[in-house]
Amino acid sequence: MKKRICFAVACLTLVSGLAYAQRKNQRAPGGRWAAIGEVLKKHKSDNPDAHAKLMKLRTSDPRAFRTKVGELLRTAAEKDPELKKRLNAPRSGNQRTGSFKTPDSVTVARDIVYATYGKRKVMLDMYLPKNPPAGKIPCIMTIHGGGWRNGDKNKFARFASKFAENGFAAACIGYRLMPEVKVPQCVQDAKASVRWVRANAKKYNIDPDRIGAFGGSAGAHLAAMLGTSFKVEKLEGNGGNKGVSSKVHAVVALATPADMTAFPRHAGNKETARLISPANYVDKDSAKFLLIHAEGDGVVPYKQSIILQEKLTKASVVVQLTKIEGRNHAFWNGNSPTAQKTVADTITFFQKTLKHPKPKTDK
Questions:
Q1: Residue 224: pLDDT band by 50, 70, 90 thresholds?
Q2: Can you tell me the mean pLDDT for 21-48?
Q3: I want to staple 144 with a disulfide (CB 3.0 to 4.6 A). Which of 108, 156, 159, 344 is the partner?
Q4: Model confidence pLDDT, tens digit, residues 54-66
Q5: Does the residue 358 lie in any domain?
Q6: Is residue 98 part of a domain?
Q7: Distance CA 41, CA 52 (A)
Q8: CATH number of domain containing 329
Q9: pLDDT, tens digit, for every residue of 281-295?
C-alpha cells in the first residue's frame, strides 16, 4: 500500500526520479502522506472493485492513474477542511516549498485581488524591496508550476522574495487550476495579472514598460505565453482591466512546455493545444528569453525548449538555452548548486534585459 501511495504522489506532483529518502522523510504521522493513505484506504473499503481497477492503471495508463487519484483527493478535500489542509502540506518536487521566511529587506502585500469572475476572486502577493533603487522599478511576474492542477502562489514565494531582495518588484500570482478551469483559462489569468500590474504600476512605483515573467514547468508555459501571445485577443479573457496590454519584455522559463500538442491530456483537442502553444506565437516582437531545462527531463522533454529556442532564433529574438545535466524536472527547488545557479542566472538575465541597476544597500 505504501508503495502505491508513493507512486500516486510522485504522479500528482509531476516529478520523476524522486529519491526514496526524500519521500520517507515526509511520512510524518498525520501529515500529507498519511492523509493520502487514508483517502486511498477509504476508497478501497467503499469501492473495492473500482479501487482494483484504479490500481491496474498504475502500469497500464499512469497518466489516467494520476488523474483519477487527483480527483479522489480533491473530492475528499472538498468534504473535509482538515484533510485539505494536510494534503496541502509542503511536498517534494515541483510543489516543494521547504521552510521560508521573508527577509527584513522585503515587504509583502498579500492576497491582492487581480481578477474577478463572478464571485471567484484570483489573487497575487506583491513583493517589494524596502530600499529600492531611485526611480521606477521593473516587476517580475512569478508563476508557480504544478501541471496546471496543483500548487498556489506560496510555492514560488522564495523566488519572488529573492527578486525583491535584488531591487525588483515581484508579483507572485495564484491562478485557477484544473479541473475548475481548462488550461486556456490559466493563460487568461496570467494575462489578467499582467494587466492588473500595469494598471496599478504607479501605486507600487513599477515601470509598466519593464515587466518580466518567471515560471517553472506549467508556470514556465504561462510565462512563455505572456512573452509570445500578447497579440491574441482570444486569450485575454475577461478578468479585468480590459484594453491594458498583457505584454512582458523578458521571460525566464524553466522546463517549458512549448508545443502543447505533445501534452494532450492537459491541452485537450488539437485546436486547443495549438491555441495554448507559446511556440505558435513567436515573432520579432516576442520577449527576450532565457530557457533552462534538464537534458533528461522525463516530465517535460528537453526537446520542448529546443522547439521554442529555434522559433525565437528564427525570428531574430534574443534567446539563451541552458542545459542542465541529469533527469531532475524541478531542478530549481531546494538549495543545490544547480538551484542556486538557476536563481543567480535568472536575476542576472533580468538585470540585463530590463536594464535594472543593483539595489541600494543599508548604510
A1: very high
A2: 67
A3: 156
A4: 888 876 776 678 7
A5: no
A6: no
A7: 12
A8: 3.40.50.1820
A9: 999 999 999 999 999
